[in-house]
Specification:
This protein is mostly helical and about 120 residues long. Helices cover about 70% and strands about 0% of the residues. The chain has 3 helices and no strands. The longest helix is centred in the last third of the chain and has 57 residues, at about 65-120. The chain is elongated and about 90 Å long. The mean pLDDT is about 75.
Length: about 120
């Protein structure tokens, strides 16, 4: 069966909600390069995402099948977002712990310095 949708030359039909693979391709280029030249990497990340976009549904695909696929993609997207949020929270907690340790070490060194200055 052929697709009932067509796109103009230079355009591509993509799902409203990106698939897990599309998000993975985008993230693989975007996130490692955020601190650097974002403009260049935005285009590369977008191109990578589009390169793995699924084809539009073919004529005759039922609305139920389309909704099932959308539900599946949304569920995966929610799971990924939740895992990313948990990881970020965990990493933030570890960073705070490291900062507290460093702060305690600095306070200890200041006390030692003050005692040494009193003796000298």
């Amino acid at each position: 069966m052929s697709s009932i949708y067509t796109a103009l030359h230079g355009w591509q039909l993509v799902p409203v909600i990106p698939t897990e693979r599309m998000l993975s391709e985008f993230s693989g280029i975007w996130w490692p390069n955020i601190p650097r030249d974002k403009g260049v990497h935005e285009e590369a990340a977008y191109a990578a995402m589009l390169s793995v976009a699924p084809s539009p549904p073919v004529q005759g695909e039922s609305e139920v099948e389309g909704l099932r696929e959308l539900n599946k993609r949304l569920s995966l997207h929610l799971k990924t977002a939740t895992e990313s949020a948990k990881k970020a929270r965990s990493e933030r907690g570890e960073t705070l712990r490291q900062l507290n340790v460093a702060n305690d070490q600095i306070a200890s060194l200041k006390r030692k310095l003050a005692k040494a200055e009193q003796v000298a």
